[in-house]
Amino acid sequence: MRKDYPVTILCKALRVSTSGYYNYIVQPQKSLSERDQIDSKVIQSLYDFTGGTIGVKQIAGELKENHNHIINHKRVSRLMNEMNIKSKIRVKKYFQSKKDAQSEWVYPNLLNRDFDASLPNRKWVTDLSEITVEEEKFYVSAIMDLCNREIIAFEMSDSPTANLVETTVKQAMKTRKLPDLTNVIIHSDQGSVYKSFKYKNLAKKLQFSPSMSRKANCWDNAVIESFFSHLKTEFPHLYATDNAKQVKKDLLLYIAYFNENRGQKRLGYLSPAAYLKLKHSAS
Fold first, then answer.
1. Pairing relation of β-strands 185-188 and 150-157?
2. Amino acid 2: pLDDT
3. Three-state DSSP state, 132
């Protein structure tokens, strides 16, 4: 309407002063500028703390749930562009375990990309991955409960063996205080350790149902793949590990951070621990 009528006429029709009108126009700009400065500092602090490894939606969710700072992810994106900072892109590195002469059991895909679980200890996903520290390679095995996306077991070895996988499964049982794994699906890729005779016997002994992704299809196990992607991106920035002997301790600290403090979009930006606590209180 300002294009069609002078401001003085509009103000007279609305019974407001022209000075009041111009104060109204100028004040939001001043407030917005001040808020930009505050939000930019908060975003920069969180960006620096994580080494730039989380995206705009993650930043907005983290600030809301853990810092009581409400900000839209589109606003985060704009301010990050103005500050000329960008989230680092996580590049997936695929790990292929050594060929096992006894690798011959391929299990059906029971999970079938249904990554939701209404109760704990119904659907677990697992994977093996390789981490290099000071040119020394380590192989880590993890199990996640899809109910609250918590890492319930995390083991490390200098070789990717069926023994490492067995230790991880038993650690998950211990974490969840289960006498056996009846009614639990454990989903993995088709790595040789999961197709081994030893893993087959382990499933029979502990009474869990093995499930496998289709061959060379990472999307069938996307949630645990995503966890390892985050770990490999965030871990070097959160823990300046340059000692091979210290790496396991620091990795366990990262797992504690992931479970207790790191908000996840799928969980409404709550941490796995906070989400499970909320779920228990609601039941």
1. unpaired
2. 45
3. strand
Secondary element (H or E) of residue 85: none
What does the radius of gyration of the chain's CA atoms come to, in whole angstroms? 25
Question: Per-residue pLDDT tens for 135-194?
Answer: 788 899 999 999 999 999 999 998 999 999 999 999 999 999 999 999 999 999 999 999
Q: How far apart are CA 162 and CA 225, in angstroms?
A: 19
Q: Are 107 and 210 in contact (CB under 8 A)?
A: yes
Q: What is the biggest distance separating any 2 CA atoms in the chain, rounded to whole angstroms?
A: 89
pLDDT value at 245 more than 80? no
**Hey, what are 10's tokens?**
């509009």
Give φ, ψ of 136 to 5 degrees.
Answer: -105, 130
pLDDT: is 273 or 24 the higher one?
A: 273
Domains of the chain: 7-83 (no CATH), 123-282 (3.30.420.10)
Amino acid at residue number 93: K
Q: Which two tokens stand for residue 157?
A: 């070895």
Q: What is the dihedral of CA 225, 227, 230, 234, to 10 degrees?
A: -140
Cα-Cα end-to-end distance for the chain: 55
Residues 6 or more apart whose CB falls under 8 angstroms from that of 35 comprise: none
Compute CA distances 162 → 127, 166, 175, whole Å.
12, 6, 20
CB 156 within 8 A of CB 184: no
The contacts of residue 154 (CB under 8 Å, 6+ apart) are 140, 141, 142, 143, 168, 171, 251, 252, 255
Residue type, 5: Y
Distances (CA, A) of 273 to 105, 137, 206, 282: 35, 30, 26, 14
Question: Taking a C-beta distance cutoff of 8 angstroms, is the pair 124, 187 a contact?
Answer: yes
| pLDDT value of residue 92 | 45
